[in-house]
Structure formats: structure tokens, C-alpha cells
């Protein structure tokens, strides 16, 4: 059933700012630390294992906390949990900015990552709740804010630190988180009786394990995560070793890989929401692009490294595609929360596991062939999952077809 369309801002100004600032903080909380580590180490002694744990913790926190988020949402409600998440992110970022030891830095960072894990799950159902008539547009806007929150901190964090110090540079992102908390406090004051009714509904997460659509979305989301983690971790080294580029060119190629995600985040959710039959075309473009990038790096790496970077980046269009499908493939609020948790938690967990496997393969072989083969297999596995995702059906309809009333 289609929703009557009304102006985006009409009666929803707080929700617009709340969702966009939450999305920005979900990524800036992660991306703002790594550029600062060298400056922090000049003042605070940080063991190598702490640095390694900070680097590997995000997907693990996203997976573990994401699985628990539906239960928390049923207990507290969507708006109240959004307040809690943004409060924890704000407190964590502030504590991290004033860290005086490696333990304080690690503890505050883990707290931030845990809150981000819950926030990732909450964003799609928040869009479905406040913007059922504008799902494509709002998903595009918040996916773009996710991308902005990923690339903006590395660009400005170090210059700000040189102009002031690293404490102030980290604290800047806490100010954005605080700004993102205020709209949710305002919306919490407007809660209605229906919010309390939604909290009493039983969990539906267990039903998702028995349906093919959630698993297909998991595979699609995991493929995007794997390409992102592997590329951001090793693409400069791959380009240097295989394509013969220098360090500056390798960095520019990584930036090109990341830049592909920005127009994808802005355009794809709008296209999918408006033209539902475009899902298959977009999936094909992403998967074929990823395979093109892998094939190019395998057989002719020096021929067109910029084209291979773009190809790898195209597979990441699966990320905003899945985000909008989390809402389009559900009918109800509780299904949206459960599906978001199921897909993102398992997807991030699989992404972390495969990325770790890739690091072992590279260490064992000393080369990149096994890594590239793994990436090719990931893209190929996403293809049959895409066939399931393309069909215009919902998890509720699938359950009712095979098991009776939802």
C-alpha cells in the first residue's frame, strides 16, 4: 500500500536532522581516530596490540551489538533508544578526546563502536517510521551522510590537530554527536501511545533465520563489506606491488575507490524506491564491476589501474542498495528493525571474518593472487543472492506463504 507523499520537512524537521546527524556520527566516530594515532602516540604510550584492536573492533562491535538491538528496541522504544545511542556516542567521543592513557583511549573507543553498532541498525527503521512516503530520498540522504562521515574526518582531523591539538581535533566530532542528540530529545517529548504499543510486540528475529530473503540480503551486504574492508586495508599495497604505481598514486587510487561510493549513496536509494525493477540492473552493475576490477588487477594490473579501482568501487553500490531494501522488503515496523539487525550484524560479522582470512592468505603466500581470487568468489556468490533480492516480495509475505500468519 503506497503512502501519501508530503513535503520532506513538513512536521518532520527534527527527524530529518536527527537521522542525518546520527548517520554522520556513526561514521565520524570510527573514521576520526586512525589519522590521529601518530599524534596521540607522541603524548600517550599506546601498545601495538591496542592499535590493532582498535582497527579490528568496529565490525565485531557492529555484529555483536547489532544482534542485541531489536531486544533493546522492544524494551525501550525507537525514540528512547536513539537518545541512548547518541548520548553514549557523545560521552564516548568526549572521553576519548580527553584520554590520558591507552586504556582510557581503548575503553572510550569500544564504547563508541558499540553505540554505533546499535545506531546502524536503528537508522533504516527510523526512516520507515518517520518517512514512509520518502524512503528512497531519506535513505539516499543518510547513506550520503554515512559516506561523508567516512571521508571528511581523515581530510580535516590532522590539520585541526596541528592548528590546536589532538584533543580538540577529536572533540570536534563529539560536538556533532551532541547536535545529533538534541533532535531525538525533542522527538522523545512528542512520543505517543503507539510508541508504547510497539515495544510490547514479540520478537520476530527468529523467523528470519528460516527465510531465504534475509539470507540473500546478508550475503549481498557482506560482499559490500568485504570489498570495502579489503580495499581500504590493502588496495594501496596491491596497486603498488602489482600496478607499479608510487605511494602518492596508490593513495589517489584508494580515494577514487572511495569516491565511487558517494554518488552511489545519493542516487541508488532514490532510483530503487522510484523504479522498483531497477534492483536487478544495479546488482548486475555492482557485481560485474567488482569482477572487472579483480580481473584487471589479476591479468593486466598496470594497463588501467584507475579503471580497476572504479570497478572495485562499483561493487560497493550494494551497500546503499541493501539499506533501502531493508525497508522496501518489509511491511511492518518490527520486521524492519529485525531485518536491519539480522542483515547488518551477520553481514559485518562475515565481512570481518573474511577480511581476517584475507590477511592470513596474504601473509601465507606473500602475494595477492589468493586475495584477488577470494574477492572474485565473493562477487560470484553475491550473484545468486541477488536473484532472491530482486524479486519484489517482503519477509512478512514469505513467512505467510510458507508458515501462516505473520
What are its keywords?
406 residues, mainly alpha, Growth Hormone, Chain: A, 2 domains, 17 helices, globular
Give me the number of helical elements: 17
Are there runs of 5+ residues with pLDDT below 50, and where? 196-201
CATH architecture tag of the largest domain = Up-down Bundle
The CATH homologous superfamily of the largest domain is termed MFS general substrate transporter like domains
- Note the main sheet: none
Radius of gyration, in Å, reads: 21 Å
List the helices and strands in order.
Answer: HHHHHHHHHHHHHHHHH
Question: Which percent range describes the beta-strand content?
Answer: under 5%
Q: Report the mean per-residue pLDDT as an integer.
A: 89
Domain count: 2
CATH C-level class of the largest domain is Mainly Alpha
What is the global morphology?
globular
Q: How does the helix and strand content classify structurally?
A: mainly alpha
Total DSSP E strands: 0
Here the CATH topology of the largest domain equals: Growth Hormone, Chain: A
Question: First CA to last CA: what distance?
Answer: 17 Å
Describe this structure in words.
- The protein is an all-alpha fold and 406 residues long.
- 82% of the residues lie in helices and 0% in strands.
- The chain has two domains: 13-200, Up-down Bundle (Growth Hormone, Chain: A), CATH 1.20.1250.20; 206-403, Growth Hormone, Chain: A, CATH 1.20.1250.
- Helix 1 packs antiparallel against helix 7, helix 3 runs parallel beside helix 5 (102-130) and helix 3 runs antiparallel to helix 15.
- The radius of gyration is 21 Å and the shape is globular.
- The chain starts with 12 loop residues before the first helix and ends with a helix.
